[in-house]
Specification:
Pfam families: DDE_Tnp_1_4 (PF13701). This protein has 117 residues and is mostly helical. 52% of the residues lie in helices and 0% in strands. The chain has a domain of 27 residues. It is built from seven helices and no strands. The longest helix has 17 residues. The chain is globular.
Length: 117
């Protein structure tokens, strides 16, 4: 990733790009998608494996409720499609905690294996 100044377009939540990209590169996002696939409705537009990290990212950026994902929705070129609040509210994390814990562990292992000092 490269950062440069002086551009004419500014993403107000650019600090969220690094964790979002880390989730993608470590396999956390793909692992969550695979783990939560059995609960995805057949005609669902939003992947539960992306909804969960989007909620976490919104909290990390200062949001204190599901409406905080609006911060991400305001920057579609940066964060891609973000589920609306009612869709995110239908994803109860406790119900999926065992599956998401496994995906998180895989992402953690993969991420640390890529660290170079």
């Amino acid at each position: 990733m490269q950062v440069s100044g002086g551009g004419s377009r500014v993403a107000s939540q650019a600090s969220g790009v690094l964790p979002a990209e880390a989730a993608r590169r470590t396999g956390l996002a793909a692992g969550l998608s695979a783990a939560l696939a059995p609960w995805r409705k057949p005609r669902a537009v939003h992947d539960p494996g992306k909804v969960l990290p989007d909620i976490a990212l919104a909290v990390a950026l200062g949001g204190d409720r599901l409406a905080g994902t609006g911060l991400l929705r305001a920057e579609p070129a940066v964060f891609g499609p973000v589920a609306p609040d009612p869709t995110a509210a239908r994803l109860p994390p406790r119900r999926h905690s065992g599956h998401s814990r496994s995906a998180r562990a895989h992402g953690h292992t993969t991420g640390w294996s890529e660290v170079r000092y």
